[in-house]
Amino acid sequence: MSEEQQNQTEVAPAPSLEVAPGPHLHTTKLSTRRMMADVLIALVPLVVAALAVFRMGAVMQIVVCTAAALVAEYLFTAMRGKPFSLGDGSAAVTGLILALSLPGTAPWYVGAIGSFSAIGLGKVVFGGLGQNVFNPAMVGRAFVMIAFPAAVGASAYVDTSSVVEAVTRATPLTALKQEGLPTSLADLFIGSTNGSLGETSALACLIGGLYLCIRRTASWEIPAGVIAAVAVIAGLINLTDMQAHWTVAHHILGGALLFGAFFIATDPVSSPLTPKGKWIFGAGVGALVMLLRKLSGYPEGVMFAVLIMNALVPLINRWTIPVPVGGPVPEPKS
Amino acid sequence: MSTALQERPGAKTFARGIHPAENKELAEHQTIEVVPSPAEVLIPLLQHVGPPCTLAVKTRDEVSVGTKIAASEAFISAPIHATIDGIVGRPTVATLPNGRHVEAVPIKAGTQKNTPEEIKRDFLGGEWSTANLERFTSEQIVAAVREAGIVGQGGAGFPTSVKIALNPKKPVDTVLVNGCECEPYLTADHRLMLESPSSIITGALLTARASGADRVLIAIEDNKPDAVAAMEKAATGTPVKIVVLKTKYPMGGEKQTILSSTGRVVPTGGLPLDVGVVVVNVASASAIARAVLRNKPLTHRIVTVTGAGIRSPKNLLAPIGISYGELIEFCGGLTPDAKRIVAGGPMMGFTLGSLATPVTKGTSGITVMTSADLAKSEETACVRCGRCVDVCPLNLVPTKMALAARHHDWDLAKRYHILACMECGCCGYACPANIPLVQLIRMGKAKARE
Which of A124, A172, A208, B347 has its CA 20 to 30 A from that of B242? Predict the structure, then answer.
């Protein structure tokens, strides 16, 4: 080695090169973590509305559910000997969505148990993030709804002794179902009615939901499908029964419909992959919501509608395999 | 060809696709430079789709630039020529960037008859008259292109003479010259359009004459307005039309270029010929003009050497067979943080295992990525966000194909049309979970074909 070469080696250390498969460019704009952060950001208006209407009940439920979800995620991943996945934010999202789907009046252990079932039964048993068939938060909610009907059922929403004014009244859907009473659209839109924490303000759901759709963290086809199906079915009901107290607008703004359409049905893991599949899925959720609202014993049906459609996702994916540009691959000539 | 096909204009773009950072500014203003003749070139005997060529010269034979050194009787083939003046060495084996080992022959440089300036003038400069091209028959053009060893220079390496020949079964009405160069970083085609536009126009007209087409289009993305202007100017007075397409990756993919500029959809598994189109890259068109008008074989090509890992990015006119290492050296060498040396562009290129790898007829560039370009990110679980579906230009479901391949479920992979995938890399670029989609799909394709 000549002296000059030696000098060069000292000045510039040889780069360490690697061989790797392409593409060698990756978008830096998006990661799983960023998508989860988007959901949390989008939930801020709902949390604000919940705190404004339900006060301490909301604080308690949100803190308990989110904390329990994080603890559950930690424990279950430790049990499975997997690397800790708290950093991806998915457990926080599940916990917060579960909290917002519960009444503020439910006791703390209901939220905690719901969170543990959401993470454990809803996600971990299937193999963790990305593997679950059902929306984890709705699995948790279904669990506590069946386990604690008195604490989460329709009657549990009302606490006549509460200092929070909204909680002393029946939820709009219960009022409709049991007494045939309509609720003013303005109340439903701004959010001053009783209900689950996240559903009270249609406005907050729309703001958060639109943010998610613009960020494309949620696929707009799903909420569009849900709302379109509800609008069509509620419209038909109105046409056949002019006395119906709830108009199309009531059905869309009332209950958990917008919360469910924008935040629950749009969970990418448990919804279809293709735009066509998303439309079918959304419309299915909307139709089932209306079916449950009209015919079931429950006043609201978003949770069951989403869970039922979740179960159909593999089938929908199979039905909606897109045809490649240029048509299917021709069979090899034998 | 039915008039229905002719009437439909292209929409200038195609559905889905991506917009990666182009980073073309690194090299796009660098005038093409000729690399001084290296001490030795290593020329692979397979640089095209089809059977390899057999050596037509012996060790210690004296050859000069353009001497045919290898050829094949096969219809789908292209002969290979000496690219420097010198002495033939002992045949050996070269490893190409895609990992394939092929027979290769070294040539040791003797005294070079032409100076770099003469090589460049001969390659790009001078007159490329479009007058009186009718004096060439289709057969003459095809024979000249075959003799010159021209293959598709966009990368695939299909012998051009086969592509442009008159095909009685599948008549052609359009010649589409591809100047999209949609790969980020690469600027070789861009520089060629700026520095030798008339050679491309002449080559395009000759291709039309060979294939019997009556329409000649040159497709350029709208991120190269100077190239559009240069080509428009050179096309004045000829029937050649410049089509400006939206900038989007992978616009330069043959099927996307055809769809965007003519509205025609090439069937899956089919060829442009099936919709009456012949596509040639701008560099191939220029080589066709050189072969027919100047009787010069394909001995040199333009290679972009670029990326943040290269000290001074350049566009080089390099003899085929020169090593990647020498081109990098000529551009000032690597920076200390260089991490991956990619043969081609970053989307579809392969990383090099050795700097001794020779440049071939299909080498469009060398992109050196730094550790900063390749911010390390762990693979996480697929959350089925569908971003890969949103960007796939062929309307496939990459995550399903990759998952099926990972689980060795070849039937499921086929049900999702895995064999239609062209491996453009859009899905891998867009995936927020950093799943190696393209690698899995590539493996799945190989297995699904079995």
Answer: B347
Which residues share a beta bridge with B219? B178, B243
Helix-helix angle A202-214:A32-54, to 10 degrees: 170
Query: What pLDDT, in 10s, does the model give residues B179-215?
Result: 999 999 999 999 999 999 999 999 999 999 999 999 9
Lowest mean pLDDT among A11-15, B100-104, B436-440: A11-15
Residues in B 173-192 with any Cβ partner in A closer than 8 A? 184
DSSP code, position A199: G
In chain B, the residue whose alpha carbon lies closest to the alpha carbon of A127 is: B381
Residue A250 lies in a domain: yes
Nearest chain B residue to A30, by CA: B432
Asked if residues B245 and B180 have their Cβ atoms less than 8 Å apart, the reply is yes
Domain span including residue A99: 33-319
Q: Which residue has the higher pLDDT, A82 or A112?
A: A112
Instruction: Determine contact, residues B150/B188, Cβ cutoff 8 Å.
Output: no
- Which has more confidence, B48 or A162? B48
Task: Determine, yes or no, domain membership for A332.
Answer: no
Does 3.40.50.720 match the CATH number of domain B3-29+117-294? no
- Domain count across chain A: 1
Q: Which residue in A235, A246, A258, A260 sits closest to A189, CA to CA?
A: A258
The confidence score (pLDDT) of residue A9 equals 46
Say if CB A236 and CB A89 are below 8 A apart: no
- Whether B432 has a pLDDT exceeding 80, the answer reads yes
Residue A16 lies in a domain: no
The pTM for the full model equals 0.88
Domain residue spans of chain B:
3-29+117-294, 387-449
8 Å CB contact between A245 and A182: yes
The ipTM (two decimal places) reads: 0.86
- Of B265, B269, B399, which is closest to A325 when you measure between CB atoms? B265
**Residues 195-254 in A contacting B (C-alpha not used; CB under 8 Å):** 216-217, 219
Return the percentage of chain B with pLDDT > 90, whole number: 76
Residue in the structure block whose two tokens are 């969970």: A267
Q: What is the pLDDT of residue A181?
A: 76
DSSP A106: S
Per-residue model confidence as pLDDT tens digits over B226-237: 999 999 999 999
Within a domain: A21? no
User: Does A15 contact B342 at a Cβ distance shorter than 8 Å?
Assistant: no
